[in-house]
Amino acid sequence: MITRRPGLAALALGLWGAVGQAQAQARSPAQPEPQAAEQELSAKIALKRYFFTSSPADGVDDDLPGTAQLGLDYQYLQSWDSLRLRLVVNPRYLESAKRDPRPDFYWDELFVLLEQDSRELKVGRIKEHWGVMETRQLVDVINTYDNLDGLQPEEKLSQKALKLGSSLGPGHLSLYLLDGFEPVQFYREPARFAAYRVQSQAEYLHGADRDGLDVAARYFVSVSDLDIGLSYFKGTNRAPAFRTAGDSLVAQYTEVTQWGLDAIWVREQWLYKLEALDQRVSDSAYNSRKLSVGLEYAITRAWRDADLSLIGEYHRDQDQRLAPVSIFDRKFLLGARLELNDAHLSSLFLGYTAQASDLGNNMLSASLDLGLSDALRAGVSAVLVNSSSSDAVWDVLASDSHLALELSYSF
Amino acid sequence: MNHKAAFSACLSLCALLHQAPTLASPEQELGQQYAHRWRDSDLGYQDTSARIRLTLVEKEGARTDRFMRMNSFETASTAVGDKVLLTFEAPENIKNSRVLIHSKIKEGDQVWLYLPALKRVKRVAAADRSGSFSGSEFSYEDIGSMEVGNYDYQWLRDEPCGDAQCAVVKQVPLYPYSGYSSIWVWYNKADYRQMKTEYYDRKGSKFKTLTLDGYQLFLGRYWRALNMTMVNHITGRQTLLVSSDVQFRTGIGEDAFEPARLGNLTQ
């Protein structure tokens, strides 16, 4: 981790200025005329409500009321010759329970992107997605996930970052300078989806620093039917470990050096995918190695115009004694996604997740994303968790079987 | 003749047979000629951009519109195909979704999707390329560029097509996992424009018909059909594509067609 840090915006401007100066010298004297700017503003209102099938575990707050969210997406595009600028301003307002630790207002994304030829520069609050699996994305290390909403949240917290990207050889290299990070948030009291008490003060160990500068890099190359991404990260781990302190837990962040690999290979009806992660800490008791493999089988027009994908994934972790607890070790997923290809692009997903060593610990999930019109969508998801009482984590999850309804309107 | 000599003679004969060019019938040569002339008439376009209204028409007549921007890029080498980038602009629920297609010769196209809700780039399985493009009657296979090296050809007949005279050429896909057993193309004999295409499914039944009209000439050389209608004969559904604001040689770089940059959305 780097502890001396100039402002990211100043650094970005300096870097881009140097690039621009060099290119201006190479260009002809005639200055390019800016093209007409484009602006777009859109909004989305989403309402979500949970219904549980059973009472919560002892001591767990039953209150997980619905949420209401208003999101605005604004972007400004401007081009000068080969130079393109994109400004993205996506604020969000979240209305939820008072005990919800999430702020009412936050930035989904807020960044400036400059592109010229094969180079790009992005600075601001960004989100990066590299992973290829359905169940978890091991190699996604830039952003933090909050485990406050549902059992497998997909919403990430944005990250203050400077990203430089460029074509390099047959692929694309991206370099990241990450300014601090957003620690995972927890309910103060045990709650649905989080039946444990976590102290508000986290510990930063072995070089970790909430406000430090972290670095990351990714090289992506696509060769025929194979896509490969190789990533490197050095900085504060986005996933905390925990230590017990009385009847509560304390989140622990360590500085990690990690290498990640993600790959997709398509052949015939099959899509094979892999993610692997090797994470090292100066105290080897925190070291971790994880592997996820999966495949998808595509059947076009399986039912009328609908396309079907059958999905299988398996996860294997080797975590040392103090490493962050993994809930995925030796789990597998068997699933199916049906893209209905109707006028509003509805889809249905059915999944069966189980612990390979004890199939009595399993989870059945179904979600329907139904387009009602160009602007209105309804989401219905159901999760049924079964536990054989052989695993404490499954026992806790078993009381969180639920049905969730979501309605969203875009305009 | 001993065994060794017999084996050697057999090997030589096999090699000779293997090297002998397959003799094309006059119908095959003629079919190929039309396709090559069509391809040659479009050489040197460099890149194009267009705004497209895609209208889904249900059998009962209900209509749904989507709007998108389409960029295509002519690669320098004819050994690989062109590249196509589609960006949805409306309605809101699919805005900023993107499809990137790298056309290949005899290999099957490479296709990536960018899903803005997840901000993820997703690779599409080879067999999925024959799946529906955004709920329309077009498949990803139809949207990618039609590369001449991807088919076996056979001229079937000449016949009138509107005011013009057309050559009907049967094209059999050579790339894997096509959704079609054959594609019949009506080439205008005067300028080699494609006027109509019929798609036959894997069982050989007529599946879809694409009609191209509203042709406009750009840069004094390049024809583009501004109106396309794809009719699905099995479901009775149709998809209309209406192009506007067509531009050639916009200067867009090949870099904009990299899967790693799909999420940037500056093009």
Describe this structure in words.
- The complex is a heterodimer of chains A (411) and B (267).
- By secondary structure, chain A is mainly β.
- Chain A has a single domain, classed as Porin.
- Chain A has 2 helices and 22 strands.
- In chain A, the strands form 2 sheets. Chain A has an 18-stranded antiparallel beta barrel. In chain A, strands 6-7 form a two-stranded antiparallel sheet.
- The two termini of chain A are 43 Å apart.
- The N terminus of chain A is likely disordered.
- By secondary structure, chain B is mainly beta.
- Chain B has one domain: outer membrane lipoprotein receptor (LolB), chain A (Clam), CATH 2.50.20.10.
- Chain B has a 13-stranded antiparallel beta sheet with strand order 6-5-4-3-2-1-13-12-11-10-9-8-7.
- The interface between A and B is large, with 59 and 41 residues.
- Chain B: It comes from Pseudomonas saponiphila.
- Chain B: Keywords: Lipoprotein, Signal.
- Chain B: This is Outer membrane lipoprotein-sorting protein.
- Which architecture of chain B per CATH? Clam
Kindly state the mean pLDDT of chain B as a whole number? 87
Q: What is the percentage of strand-forming residues of chain A?
A: over 45%
Given helix and strand content, the structural type of chain A is mainly beta
CATH fold assignment of chain B? outer membrane lipoprotein receptor (LolB), chain A
Which stretches of chain B are poorly predicted, pLDDT < 50 over at least 5 residues? 10-21
- With strands numbered from the N-terminus, the spatial order across the biggest sheet of chain B is 6-5-4-3-2-1-13-12-11-10-9-8-7
Architecture of chain A, according to CATH?
A: Beta Barrel
Largest sheet of chain B: 13 strands, antiparallel
The residue fraction in helices of chain A comes out at: under 10%
CATH class of chain B: Mainly Beta
